[in-house]
Design goal:
51% strand, 113 residues, alpha+beta
Length: 113
Amino acid sequence: MGRTRTTRLIMPSVLMLLLAGCAQTMTLFPRGGGPQVSGTLDTVMQRMSIDLDGETYAGDFIGAGRRSRQYSGLLVSKSGKTLRCEFTGGLGETGNGVCQHGGGRTSDLQLKP
């Protein structure tokens, strides 16, 4: 088998493994009870997305500084409802935080690779 053919066979697998490591699961645990819901956090594109109350909320998150492990994000649904989240850790590792729903509800946030 030639080098070029081997490279063509191996590179897609390597790329898939790298991309798989870019997404993390984020889970919201409503304070005061209610169902927990899960979404995704894309560490490469710095985007968050979650389905909540029959709507999809999506948005960007940013870090507080170059070496900070603190992040915040604003997710918005198509109807204009908001979800503001703040969390620590999380980029390729576990993390925790809090999300404030536009209606005043609060949920604890957990991130897992």
